[in-house]
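Question (not urgent): is this output format expected?
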Amino acid sequence: MGGRVPLGYDKADAGLVINIEEAGNVRTLFNAYLELGNVRRLQAFANQHQMKTKTRITKLGITVEGHRFSRGRLYHLLSNPIYIGRIRHKEQVFDGLHDAILDQDLWDRVQNQLRTNAVIRSSRSNVRNASLLAGKIFDDDGRNLTPNHAKKDGKRYRYYVSKVPEAADDRAEPEWRIPASELERAVTDAVTNDRELLLAREREGKGNLSKSDLAAAIDRVTIREEQLQITLKTISDAEPRCIIAPFTLRRRGVETRLVLNRASPREPDTVLIRRILRAMDWVDQVRAGRTIAEIAASQDITREYITHNMQLAFLSPKILRAISEGEQRPDVSARQLRRMDIPAAWPDQDGIFL
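Got this back:
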């Protein structure tokens, strides 16, 4: 067997031999996963019990201490057939010459749980990726704008399109065909920056609006020539809350952008700006010869935190200017960016930030 020796085993002349202490941790993690139900809780369990990845000794004799489990490491451990005496090579699994740490029943139950959770995550992802305004957006004549999409060069583009009356010529173009991301962004911007709504949520002790909050709050959106009329749902018998948001359609070639004409600009996100400046400082330190491990130790943060956030140092000048002026997408925040990878190519960054 080539590659790194997994947790639970040591390498000997005869091959892999079980490390009794580590094997106990492996069994504990498998049983805890079944009990806790998902890897997020398992990660918290492993951290609480100070479980670490395998300590390794390099060919130069340097000891590399184990560290806290990431969720990715736990997924890999839970799906590694080496623990039932088998070895995976590319897409195939073969019988190994080493002893198993787990019995087949425990292994099968964990694999079934992993598959079940994967289906649940996929279903939630589909819900999150559903069109935010489906069934809620209409034109001035009361016609529903329905979600549609087109594919070009393997890429999927979503739109909201007004229905063409049945009596119309089949070749007639719909009156409205607006990129879904632009329309959803404009509605989100208008709602999340509505002062009355923000004050009401603050009085109720609620935080920022999530996408599910937005979907639940919006009752109807009417799109007119130069304005959006957004009607919010009410809990009591009070009059429905209505937001009027003037907009401008800007065209660049075949691309259409819907831009709100805000009376006053949004305040710059100082948390995001500080995070970007910090990332730039890390890059400068690395270029000066410091390692990421040294920077992390000096600032009492993890190496993973630095490597993930360091990508903010490579944003395009256009995006940096937009962020400094509070003109980035309203759903872009330092917290949101922790969960995504930022493309290295500047043109590909626009879809995330602008």
